[in-house]
Amino acid sequence: MTDEPREYDREFTARISRRSRRRIGINTNRGQVTRFVLQLEYLLDPDTSEWVEVVRYDHDESGSDEATHDVTEDGLHIDVYRDGEKSDSHELTPPLSGGEALTHAEEHLTEHVEGYIRRFEEWHNINANR
Hints:
This protein is of the alpha+beta class. Helices cover 23% and strands 43% of the residues. The protein has two helices and six strands, in the order ββββαββα.
């Protein structure tokens, strides 16, 4: 992956297809989401188990890392990755609470996941049937 995964209070990974998965990390404080990452990842090389980012949504109220931001001030955005580097970023919403932003990110990814995977495979000349 481009960025080493940071540790979260709770982390979940769910397979979407043979070569794609959704990874989520969440921190909460008194029931409020204070930090999260939601990523669509792709198994680029099955022989080495190398998972890479396809798209990423994130939030960090403390602003402890340059790669994240506070959705309560900046709104939710999506980062798009190509060739192991962030190639684009799109603003998706005005400022939201951490919980609302996470819900919106999950809904957005669910709605667009097939298109993101297809574009990633095209960019990287991957035959999905391999």
